[in-house]
Structures
1.
Amino acid sequence: MLLVAAVSACTVSAHAQSSDVAAGQRMYRDGILPSGEPMTALVAGDVPVVGTQFSCESCHGRSGMGAAEGAYVVPPVAAPFLFTESPQPQRPAYDAKSLARLLRDGVTPSGRELAQELMPRYELADDSVAVLTAYLLQLSEGNSPGVDDSVIRFATVVTEGVDPLEREAVFEVLNTFASEINRQTRLESERWDRGYTPESRLPTVFREWVIDEWVLSGPGDTWGQQLESYYRDAPVFAMLGGLGTGSWGPVSEFCERHAVPCLFPGTDSPSAAKGDFYTLYFSRGIALEADLIAAHLAKHPVKRVIQVYCDPDVALGVTTLRQSLARAGTSEATIAHDCREPLPPIATGDDTATVLWFRNEQLAGLPAGRKYLSSTLLGSGLMAPLLSLQGPVFMAHPFRLPGKADPALKRFEAWAKTRDIELASARQQAQAFFACLALKHAVKHVGRFFVRDYVLDVLDHSQNLVAYLPFYGRPTMGPGQRFLSKGGYVLPMVDGQAQTAQAEWILP
């Protein structure tokens, strides 16, 4: 009887603690009080704001490790820093009472008042401070899964249907990059052992990279279970690159569920729900092309649009364009075609446009009238003469303009050449190389704090990295941006050649 009562009490206590942490997380990330109302505060002394405008995360980062705001450095509020004594600037460790004073009055435990322009003064009851404290006590406390004293483990996902040669080419880049990292890591560890490294450097930061290959087979609705099985057997710190056919949705959902960074997968069918944080993509791929076509049609309207496709992997583009046309009041019809058969006759006219979601080898017997093509599907076919195309032809192109200098690609080609890596799938290989560079940059920055959210916070503030991204035009990185490239071109085609001088840049 007493044992049951004790267990029940512990269960209630654990539940209460868990609920406090969840409520504190919502305060920190979203600026929402346990009551469901937004937090309220004053900035600059007398300017009222709500927590949804000035949440803790917006300045201190998801990880709580701090950031930079203009010319100011935002200090960390994660558990390893906030609740321990700080030497610079000198202050005692925070507790619930001193944290409440900081939030309400902007005064630190050492008596220093923080600038009102940077630190809002929040109106918080004691119970709200208590749940926020419960969350901060565990924020970024300890390393994330996938890290031990000697190894940091990653995984790259490959789905069924990926070209084996492309898969091999990408893995050669990943493995070569990891091998070089590991050689450097072993040398740095030896430097420490021999006393060459300053005492401020800790040996625990040196870890070798291990990259596992997670192969997904069967229908997409089974991928989640397969990923869970891989993760149970060997948890990873992050996903790196990857190759996929079909929707990346099941992989993205797994990453959100386990808070695993998924860094720049090689997919043209990304999936990002509102509020997703953990997957960073190069672009929206096929869906972006659909939006480019929709924007061009809005400028040059027709009465009717016919979409023709034969590959189920382009379903995302078909659906995205259909929804856009419906909002614009444009009539749309879809033809699901068998790729093995010749195209049936398609009735067109001056008031009709045909969107052909085809690969290069499928471009035969195309209808007359205005046509739109996908450069993602055509690949290198964009640069080849497509002499069978007659009439007004346009290409949706979410990449750099063809024929324009690409310094980032030249850097990758030089790296590959010095390592005898053949460019069998240049775009996917270059993307894998960029993913490795980004991960190396982030891991180096986090030092001995191997916290997943910290890695993503670092990447969110690494705008200079995009200089190393080939193929894509006008990429940017920033907090909350989960697609590096947001826009693209619509290119007129004449005699099968892209007319870059008449290209229209479109930011949907």
Note: The two ends are 65 Å apart (CA to CA).
2.
Amino acid sequence: MTQTPSAAANPTGRPTFAPAPRSSWLALAVLLAGFFMALVDATIVNVALPSIRTSLNANESTLSWIISGYALTFGLALIPSGRLGDRFGHKWVYIIGIVLFTAASAYCGIAANDFDIIIGRVLQGLAGGIFVPAVGSFIQLLFNGKERGKAFAIMGSVIGISSAVGQIAGGLLIQAFGEAEGWRWVFFVNLPIGILTAIFAIRLLPAGDAHADRSNRMDWFGVLLLSAGLVAILVPLIQGQQDGWHAWTWWTMAAGVAGLVLFAIWQVVFTKRGGSALVPPRLFHHLSFTFGTILALVYFAGFTSIFFTLSLLWQGGFAHTALESGLLTLPFAVGTAIFSSQSSKWAAKLGRSVLVYGAALVTIGLGVTWFLLANIGAADLSNWILLPGIFIAGAGNGFFLAPNVQFIVATVENSEAGAASGVVQTAQRVGSAIGVAIIGSILFGTLNFGKGQPTPEIIANTFKAGAANAMLMSAALAVVAFLLVFALPKRIQLHGAPTAAPAAE
């Protein structure tokens, strides 16, 4: 539980806190085990997509759903699950989420067809969105002062490490168990982790936060409107290319936009009735917060989709192994891990400029990668040629990722920081889903192999052209994100306001 300030005199006038007990750090380890599993599953599956395509005879829209379905339901669950944790206790919300995630992983692993794998991934994302908010909430409950900052820093390191581990781990598992069925172990690997995490969570997580706040009723109608609106937008984006962009795709997207407008109106009405809205309308009274939320959505739409593009190019187009595909994106992960460890220090020195530099580096890195894909022949492309651009993008991502939420949340009042953080992180996940849907439509829309049996050379060059178009869109989204950064405040007090959890990839 939250420690109380020491009564001892302090010459600085600031409260002092007793050191967190050993049990708090053990609880943190359990929390971060589940957190790590959820983040790894956002990237590990990228290298498995070509194998899934072959094994289940999956079409292009299925591959997009495997990524987008996870991200979308993850994002949709974040805000209501946080509210449920406040009402009923974060311990059991975390445990239920872990158990559901583990069960969904098993279902993905035994999938007999493309429908099964989509359902499994949607359930995985839902479960991840249920238990991940509890991690930040427990850190707030278990730690104070400098120890809370240390705990969040460890959490940030887990984010960086997970991005490095995901693609490589997926490649190693498929290499070990074979291209045909190795993809199933990408999901089975979660079973021992999930089971052990649930057992230790029951033993080590405190239950003292239960009965915290049951005064406000859940806005389930708001959840329905938000979910329906986003699904109505996402389904046509994913299925449109496969089905030929018929009239229903445009009408459904229009209905989705209307659903989001109704959601916004309902949030105002629900608030005026005394309810606790999922997305408090007062947040958007701050113009900088509005642009910051758009920034989070656009940035994640741009950068998370590059793994989708490169994995399909390297395996589907160039016939490389899953491990080789994982090694291709390793420079991005390394750049992210190195520079994210320094981002807080540079944010304190440079203020908003650290985000400007980060977004600029991502834009340059993706721009360089696009230029190389567009102008170098398929036979001449290699890991080493693409390495500089991918590393530069990763370095920029490292600078940008950790301080991003803090700068956006700083645009609202301290009392609104928790709600604002939830909205921003939901925008990140929804952005990832929409980004993959758009990029997938662009990539698969240009895969025209002509008549007859295409040669390996034709396949390689066709995939390369599609990947170049997809990477150009990712770079364009990065440019938009770069411009939106300037809507954020130039400086914030990084350690003064309530601590916001680092952004999860």
Note: The radius of gyration is 22 Å.
3.
Amino acid sequence: MALKATRDIDAESPLQDALYVEKITRLLPTYSISSRTGDDVVLGYWLTGGTNIPATSFRRLRQSMSWLGAGHLKDVVQAAGFEVAEIIPLERKPATSAEKAEATPAEKVEEGKRAEPEPNKVFELAGRPELAAFFNEHIVDIILHRDRYKALGIEFPSAVILHGPPGCGKTFAVDRLVDFLGWPSFQIDASSVASPYIHETSKKVAQVFDKAMENAPSVLVIDEMEYDLGLKRPPSSADSALTALRQAISAFYKRELQCGDGSEAYLVERSPGVFLLSVHIKDMATLRLEFEGSTLKRRVGNPNIHMVLEYAKSTGVVRTLVRGGAKYQQMLVEAFAEHVLGVKANAHRIKSPTLDLSMLRTGFDAPEAFEDGFSMVQLKALTLLSPDTALKIECTAMQSSQQRSVHELLKEKLPGPLEGQWAVTAAQVNLYYPPEPGRTRPKVVTIEVTSKGRLNLHKFDAKMQAQLEGYLVAVGILQKGQTLSAQELPPEADAVSSSSAFED
């Protein structure tokens, strides 16, 4: 009621960070630098206590708030001014007496209100007419006219695969279809089924399938299943494996840059379960001028192309550092998978290690750093990209700024990018140790991170790397499953994450 009443008098102010004033039953807008979100998301966030589920996605909201009952929840959503899609039951198996006894009164009332299937009902999906037409042709029409299709030898639709980049609306479309059908739905995703224990993942998947069959007809949603199969196995350090790796990388550089006649590769276990691969490739010959004593001489040499790969067998996470961009990183990961891990990994199966840097708009707050002996933490530099990607700015706090955070300086000098919809694409964080006795300058540890997943943590020892990963987890840039350090994961938590690099 407060949301609707507020919108009746103020239709424009963003409400994602609004305060609820109980005395007047209104939401008080506040100044915010966070991106504006729709009112349906605001309502879902308030109802669930912090989960970004749109109120218009009634099925997901109902799953998160099963304690309220579908009827009461529907009333709340409608009172806020949002429509709830009509739920149409389609030949659901009658509930047993035990199931009826377990159902809440609200759910039983809703079941009694459901209408009979409408043969001419058409599924609609706002903004996606082609996808809606596909669902109607291959799913809805077959279900609504099952006798006609059965006579033609066509049974229920089995499986539909939706593919596309993150954020294109795959999950939203499925939610709308499930709401339209009114069937019970069951979901399989990384957080619900993955497990580091042998056979445990397959057991959990089987349990979900059993529930879906018990409640047939039903919908089984496998959301981003590719991430559930992160490749986790010990790499081979045999000479034959490293030789095949070098040959594959050399062949790539010969095709692309006409170099790579010589190569070296080293694989070491830098910490338990975390491996470091270092590869050196012979670059094209260059002419250099060097002094030999007081005489200037010309020398011809072949520079070194150096690349580094880190791999954690417990999480399946891979990090690369190689010059040349995504094409070269992909080459290195594919070669590592095939020749060192023994699995042929197609390009589309390699996951992009994207990271969210949006929280750096307000600085880098990691209290754990001071517990580890650092005396100061400074957000040194930020790279920001305009919403239309037409302009990029790189901002660095100068030495004269007395180690102030770059976000503080931006708020004073150039607040627009931080307050607008500019994306943070790269950052540099400095952590300062107190000066050693007899010295005035502190020792500096620098973290460099990009939104595409590049980290410079390979240059630090295992202890320092684990500490820095912990800071990134604490501020929300990394998830626990995106770390190389296995100890970052809870003992019984799922070890598979969306940053796993391979499928098995």
Note: Residues 2-84 form one domain.
4.
Amino acid sequence: MNSTTENANSTHEKTYLKWYNKVGYGSGDIAGNVVYAFLSAFVMIYLTDTVGLNAGIIGTLMLLSKIFDGGSDLFFGMMIDRTRTKWGKARPWMFYGYFGCAITLVAVFAIPTSMGTTAQYAWFFIAYSLLNAGFFTANNIAFSSLTALITKNRSERVQMGSIRFMFAFGTSLLIQTITVGFVAYMGGDAAAWRTVAIIYAIVGLISNTIAVASVRELPESELRDADDDTKADDKVSFLETLKLLINNPFYLILLGVYLMTQFFSVTLNMGIYYMTYILGDANLLGVFAWTINIPLIVGLLLVPFIVKAMGGMYKINIIGYAITLIGRILVIVAASMGSLPLMLVFTGLASLGQAPLQGTLSALIAEASEYTYLTKGKRIDGAFFSTTSLGQKIGGGVATAVAGWLLELGGYDGTAEVQTEQALNMISFIYLWVPTIMATAVVALLFFLRVEKANQKLRDSMIGVGREKVGATVDDLGVSDSEGRPADSRPVDLADPEGDNPPSR
């Protein structure tokens, strides 16, 4: 970025949010992680060890559920894009969607023990599918979309992402720390799990309501330039939306990153099995939760400053996740040595390395969405932010399913007092090796995530040409679509000579 462009951008970086808006928005991830963290860390062991269901069958049902999930993310993203209310586009979906989340979360952890086994599987499948494919999707996509709908300031987006994930990991830390003891305090049986789920659902409802009330979406006139003649979001068809997404290489990369990071997280959350059967103390899950989440929270506090100092997100994300990979490799070494203290230290190191990517993901999605606007003249923010929900659900769901299959393959029996050596080895593989493999994949993908550079080249080409169509293309950006062709070989409608485009919507 040249100095002229930097000055232009800084001049036009209007601020939109107060500190309480950012904090209020971020607190919405308490609600999201009441669902996500509780499910990812405990639903499998609840189903296998309390209800007595088969891990392999559960894994298969979870995977089948994701088939219903597949189209719901894009559907709700498009619905948000087309919504017009006095509350805005996203806030109604975020608010009302969570009531369904609360009900179905309780239902997942309230499977009647008096039912036959087949009926129990059916109960779980229906409740789990409604939660993930419907209510959580609507709420989460709306929540993520607000990043682009309440501010156009890129620094504020990074700050929002960091604050959001601090709440997310703080909630995850709390849930992983207290849930085992909380369930035991309530009696340790199926009724105890149901009671805990009800309490968590109420907490989620309160935090979600606070988040919705803490922000306001910008009006249409603010989100668009006065002379922006691009078509409105609701004019973009489903097939056109799908084509725009597929032809945006950065969307595909980010989707892959989300899939891998969620796979990483969910298999790591299988730690309840590792603590119980390998380390011999289920309460160690809370100790590891502190080791994971405190470094993440500290790192997220620093991310906005580091991004600003480094002039972008690309390098810090690669460096950060390389640290994560090294940390996970060292965890394996420490486990082979039988050293719990070293496992904790290296787990913390790996977690610290995750902070940059976690803190910038929302801003990166907004940048990817803007790439489509700059090259295609279309605004489909809701569809782009479906990346978050789609990645979370497919990555998390498939990871949980795979974990279930691996447990079944290893001969795990939730009703047995002692597990076989084969089962113990499989538990170790899931907890130690799978996250390391996923971290390797994320590092590889991040090398190709040059969305900031691509957008800046497009903005630079706009300087001095006015609001007219020019023969500039993005062939020289070094970016190709999914079929290896340049992302767009057509002339670009350069709609902002100052390089200060509104975010895609």
Note: The radius of gyration is 23 Å.
